[in-house]
Amino acid sequence: MSSRSACSLAAALLAVLLLGPPAAAPAAALAEPEGRVILTVSGKIRNRNGGADARFDRAMLERIGEQDLRTTTPWTDGKQTFRGVLVRDLLAAVGAWGDTVHAIAINDYSYRIPVSDFDAYPVILASRMNGELLRIREKGPLWIIYPRDEFPELREKAVEPRMVWQVRALVIE
Amino acid sequence: MRIGRLITVYSVLGVIILAFSASMIFSFNNLRKYEQLARNELTDTTWILAQAEVELIRFLYVLDLYMYAEPPVVSKEDVIEHMEIFWSRLPLFLEGREGRRLARIGDAQETARRALETLARLEPVLTGLDRSDVGEYQAARAELHGLLAPLKRTLIDARQWQDAADNIRTERLDRIYAELIIASIGILVSSACLALMLLHEIRLAHRAQSAEKRALLQLSEAIESFSDAFSLFDKDDRLVMCNQRFREMYASVDELLKPGVKFETLIRARIEKGHVPEAVGREEEWIQMRMRRHRNPSDDFEILQRDGCWFRISERRTKDGGCVCIWTDITAMKQRQQDLAEQQRRADSANRAKTDFLLTMSHELRTPLNAIMGFSEVMKQEMRGPLGSSQYVEYANDIYQSARHLLAVINNLLDISRIEAGRMELDEHAVAIGEEVEKALRLLEDEASAVDVSLVRAVDKDLPLLLGDPHKIQQIVINLAGNAIRYMQGGGRVVISAFRDGEGGIVLCVEDDGQGMSEEDVQRVISPFVRLSNPLVRQQDGTGLGLPLVKALVELHGGKFELTSTPGEGTVAVAHFPCERVLGDGPAMAGGGLAGPH
Questions:
Q1: Which of B:96-135 have CB within 8 Å of A?
Q2: Residue B549 pLDDT level (bands cut at 50, 70, 90)
Q3: Partners of A128 in the beta sheet?
Q4: In this structure, are residues B317 and B297 in contact, taking their beta carbons and an 8 Å threshold?
Q5: Is residue B544 very low, low, confident or very high in pLDDT (cuts 50, 70, 90)?
Q6: Yes or no, beta carbons of B97 and A106 under 8 Å apart
Q7: Which of B85, B91, B95 sits opposite A107 (nearest CB)?
Q8: Is B36 on the interface with A (CB under 8 A)?
Q9: In chain B, fewer beta carbons within 10 Å around the N or the C end?
């Protein structure tokens, strides 16, 4: 972890905060991933670190800032405590400017999610459940978790397919 | 009655509509639930099972590629990743929503548990697997391949279970649709009934309203056509309506005469303009009196207007506390009343003059008559020596008889005049009727036998005493029996009876079998100074005062006199003496009672 990458991330965030819409923000370079890449963001983004993509290892995601989300899911029993980065923070970090996030899973399952979901709700890209890192067999490494318990409207059937698990890439469209 | 029935019908209809609506809402809710259920089950469960199978096949495929592809195209990490992916599908059989659902389908969960066990067992083998470990690979692959068949079986079971559930659901959905249709028809029919009834009600109300309007119009026309002045005030004493006649009466305060004006305001305005003479000088007092009468109307009262017209004011309270006032013009009636009073006064005065004249005249006539009677009696009895010729004696007798008759006439006239003038008083004693009758008949015996009339006495032996004037009672008997004798032609009989009537009074009755009279004549003979125009009786002497005098005498005793007659059969004269005049119940003793007869 270099101080240079921290600075550039801070600069990118500052640019977003000060200059308003991401469209107006100048492109900024992201830090290079040092560990294994677990997420690739591509498409309509301004900040990249490897050609056309923004690649993240676990540490980079953790640096964006993680938070807990305690909720039920249709596929688990009882309430679970998930932890991960807020999708809206992640989108800000890559300078995303599209309307739709196309989430792609390891097994190539994919689903298109409107960006407005992430603006309206604190949706996270969970990497931990009950403190433990999510392995692939536990629907990791990244799982899009909606705060279903907090917002009853998110218990709608239509929201379920957006909770994509085993996410490996996001394409901003 | 009708209102009650209507409320019942509307309530029933309302309840029906509510019940159908509730059923509809319930059905819609069920519909939604079943539809959602169908969507969930069809998609999720089969999707999860199919995905597990697909991931297992992909895992096997990647494993095979790893072992045999030349040159190698997949790494061991790929193999592990696919194992992980397949692994991640298995907990879905056991937990969460689909886990709960799959618990009911065949041995889906058992299959998943076995697969998890197998994976856990094979994990170290696969992690350490090398392309040269063909034996281990084959053993592992065979075991993994063995998972496919149960998975397939589970998918088919789920499919069948789904179909059965679908059938049940379809039946239920059909039932719900039928319920919805029935409820819709029910609501439609009830609403139509309700609408029709409301329409009918509106028409009825409209009809009633126009009938009411018509009735009101008729009423106001009728009130307008009154010759009397009519006005109606409400419970706050404000004018509601009045007719043209009333407006004419209040023409001088026309500007006030609008609906809503207070009664007192109208009265004050009229009094201030001096329309009521009797209120002049004491206006406030009069208004107070008028308002008192208006507030508690009882009898009608009369009022004189400045223009000389009299009105009778009739005020009545209505049920709702209002007041109806009717002013009737009674000027003409008042005028007639005054005229009549004047005539009556004049007639009374003339009658008094006549009576006074008769009284005076009677006295004046009686004095010389006493001399004529006295001297003619002396002469016919030849008290002072013979008259010389027997004819003189006869003449003297004629003079005496004529004078006596004249005296009787004058006495009757005097009596009637006295009675009319109110100067006749009874000299009351306890009278034994039988004795007085006997005395009276003794005086008539000669006259009766002369015309061959027999006098029959039929006085009740047990008759009690009567409080009366014995002379007057004698006079009554003499007049009645005398009349009967006088009007008999060619003999007959006169029955004089006395008895008690049903009410405790005493009845004195004189009955003859003479020629009788017509009803008209009966009325005439009771009136003073009238004699029958019958030529047969005109030859008889009489003053025509007998019966009126009898009537007056009986009435002086507080009794009643009746005369009934049938032409050709006879006449009955009846004097009723009231029970108040009857003294005790014992039989009258001759000369007994309070005092003997004079």
A1: 96-99
A2: confident
A3: A83, A133
A4: yes
A5: low
A6: no
A7: B85
A8: yes
A9: N
Query: For a pLDDT cut of 70, what percent of chain B falls above it?
Result: 93
Closest by CA position to B226, among listed B344, B140, B324: B324
pLDDT given at position A49: 87
pLDDT beyond 50 at A19: no
Which of B40, B55, B99 shows the shortest C-beta gap to A157? B40
The token duo for B547 is 């019966």
Indicate the pLDDT class of residue A44, thresholds 50, 70 and 90: very high
Q: How far is A91 from chain B (nearest CA, A)?
A: 27
Q: What is the pTM of this model?
A: 0.46
Q: Where are the alpha helices (DSSP H) in B422-545?
A: 433-450, 470-486, 519-526, 535-538
Nearest residue, CB atoms, A73 vs list B39, B88, B96: B96
CA distance B164 to A104: 35
Burial of B8 (0-12, 13-18, 19+ CB in 10 A): exposed
Do residue A77 and residue B39 have CB atoms under 8 angstroms apart?
A: no
What is d(CA B503, CA B481) in angstroms, rounded to the nearest whole number? 25
Nearest residue on chain B to A135, judged by CA atoms? B84
For chain B, the C-alpha Rg in angstroms (whole number) is: 66
Q: Has residue B141 got a pLDDT over 70?
A: yes
Nearest to B364 by CA among B413, B325, B317, B401: B413
Q: What is the per-residue pLDDT across B330-379, written as a single tens digit (0 to 9) for each?
A: 889 989 999 999 999 999 898 888 878 877 887 788 888 888 888 888 88
Counts of helices then strands in chain A (DSSP H, E): 4, 10
Q: What is the pLDDT of residue B542?
A: 54
Residues of A in contact with B57 (CB under 8 A): none
SS3 A121: coil
Q: Which of B55, B88, B89 to mutate to test the interface with A (most CBs of A within 10 A)?
A: B88
Dist. CA A29–CA A53, nearest whole Å: 11
pLDDT in tens, B568-589: 888 889 988 988 888 875 444 4
DSSP for B89-116 reads HTHHHHSHHHHHHHTTSTTHHHHHHHHH
For residue B584, how many other CB atoms are within 10 A of its CB?
Answer: 10
Least CA distance to A161: which residue of chain B?
A: B44
> Are A74 and B96 in contact (CB < 8 Å)?
yes
Q: Which of B447-461, B511-525, B531-545 has the lowest mean pLDDT?
A: B531-545
Residue B352 contacts A where some CB pair is shorter than 8 Å: no
Structure tokens that stand for B573 in this block: 């004269």
pLDDT of residue A168: 93
